[in-house]
Write a structure and sequence with these properties.
Layout lengths: L16 H5 L1 H7 L14 H19 L5 H40 L2
Amino acid sequence: MNNTNKNTPAEIKGWNWGAFMFNWFWGVGNKTYLPLLVLIPIFNLFWVFVVGFKGNEWAWQSGNYDDIKTFKAVQATWNFAGLVYFIVVASIFTLYFLLFIGLIGVFHQ
């Protein structure tokens, strides 16, 4: 991160779906490299949540944003993509789970 002394406005803090779902890719795109720690097995199970919570702060501190409006516009795209991806992944896992439960019922008759 370039400037860790940069104050983070309160309205920027919060959950970032883009940082959570696209963690290391989001980190490289926002010039903040702590999300690369998700590449460490086992540790990543914890770290993805840290990235989701702290991502906006890290991106603000490392970015060259002139105002909050511009920052929020950029992160809104990441947030939307991350949320859509989360819903798709959760739906696929749910369908596989329901299919698996259905197959268990078929074989136990």
